[in-house]
Design brief:
Layout (H helix, E strand, L loop, with lengths): L1 H32 L4 H7 L3 H18 L4 H9 L3 E4 L22 H16 L3 E5 L9 E3 L9 H6 L2 E4 L24 E8 L5 E6 H6 L3 H7 L4 E3 L3 H11 L5 E4 L2 E4 L2 E4 L6 E3 L5 H17 L1 E4 L5 E5 L3 E5 L12 E8 L16 E2 L2
Parallel strand pairs: 2-16
Antiparallel strand pairs: 1-13, 2-15, 3-15, 4-14, 5-13, 5-15, 6-12, 6-14, 7-8, 7-11, 9-10
The structure holds fe (ii) ion.
Length: 359
């Protein structure tokens, strides 16, 4: 009985901080919006860091009004697999759902969703970033269903997506690529802004803490050995060929990392292989990880106006099947990434940009 009370108490606190975070950002962005033109808003998206600096004092004031601080919200986000901010922006009036990753159409609703995402990341001391090799480096992309003739992404965009971390072939923050130290780290956060989700198709989140409970000591040891091959996710491949000459593959990758007293993970069901296929213990550990993902996936249906910050170090994410319908009023999320850039080397930025990373 005491145990149940403890759980509900913990859930209650989690919900409270998410509610406060959401209310504060919404209030701050709404008041900011009332002082600027649409054109100014649009232009500010080209300079996300400056925009963050403009918004932060407003958010701090709104948090303070609610007896919270950025530090509390930040600590919460960095230590939880998911922050779900319900109704953090007004469910927008929108054009029809696009049928490609880019461009994000310019409309009040899409711009507000992007500004709010930058505001959320700024609050938790994370900067909105992109990679030049993915979707031409656009800071925000549409996550939508592609038409059947939409090339290699058409089938993938409609189907289920198994658990993965984003930018899986990039090193974790604080580590380097073994062959090219220009390669920037993978993101700390995957930030999803929901514009439409008529069938409540859930984003799936798999907390690493839950996965670890399902792995044996042997599995954990195996997953820390450099005995896996990690390829790049499909969305990066063409861009990498242009920038690096080839897709980035990591030959001696470990999947699980002991980092400053906690575990971090990099993994993708579709992009990870065992280096030595005869090595049974490695295969068993990876199978155990995949099974744990299937057991631990938490469905997170996002409604228009919600933003999810998925912690890309301590959670995997995926998606349920979306279905074939595209365009019109179908599902539409915007995605950007968040990263602590304090130790990013100048040459890990794409030339001339302060949000686009290499490659
Ligand atoms: Fe992803």
């Amino acid at each position: 009985m005491v145990y149940i009370n403890f759980i509900s108490l913990k859930q209650g606190k989690t919900q409270l901080i998410e509610v406060i975070f959401s209310q504060a950002v919404r209030a701050a962005v709404t008041s900011w919006r009332s002082t600027v033109t649409f054109d100014y808003m649009l232009k500010s998206l080209a300079c996300p860091r400056e925009l963050g600096c403009e918004l932060l004092p407003l958010i701090e004031r709104e948090l303070d009004n609610r007896n919270y601080s950025c530090a509390e919200v930040t600590a919460f986000a960095w230590n939880n697999p998911l922050v779900k901010l319900e109704a953090v922006f007004e469910p927008p009036e929108l054009p029809e759902t696009p049928t490609d990753f880019r461009p994000v159409p310019d409309a009040e609703g899409t711009v507000l969703a992007q500004i709010t995402a930058i505001a959320c990341l700024t609050t938790i001391n994370s900067k909105a970033v992109s990679y030049r090799s993915e979707n031409e480096g656009d800071l925000f992309v549409n996550l939508v269903v592609f038409p059947p003739d939409g090339g290699v992404f058409a089938e993938k965009s409609a189907g289920k997506m198994s658990g993965h971390t984003d930018g899986v072939s990039f090193p974790l923050r604080g580590l380097s690529d073994p062959e090219n130290d220009r390669i920037a780290p993978s993101p700390d956060f995957v930030c999803l802004s929901a514009l439409r989700n008529p069938n409540q198709v859930p984003t799936m989140v798999m907390p690493l803490e839950k996965l670890m409970e399902r792995l044996s000591k042997e599995h954990i040891d195996e997953l820390q050995k450099p005995q896996f091959i990690i390829g790049s996710q499909l969305t990066f491949r063409e861009g990498m060929k242009r920038i690096l000459g080839d897709e980035l593959m990591v030959d001696d990758a470990q999947l699980l990392f002991a980092m400053n007293g906690s575990w971090w993970i990099r993994f993708s069901h579709s992009s990870t292989l065992i280096a030595d296929t005869d090595k049974k213990s490695a295969q068993e550990a990876m199978d155990a990880l995949k099974n744990a993902c299937a057991d631990c996936a938490i469905p997170v249906p996002l409604a228009p106006g919600d933003i999810a910050l998925v912690n890309n170090r301590i959670a995997l994410h995926g998606r349920s099947e979306v279905g074939d319908e595209y365009g019109g009023q179908t599902r539409w999320l915007l995605r950007t990434y968040g990263l602590d850039i304090s130790n990013i080397d100048p040459n890990q930025w794409h030339e001339g940009s302060n949000f686009m990373l290499y490659p």
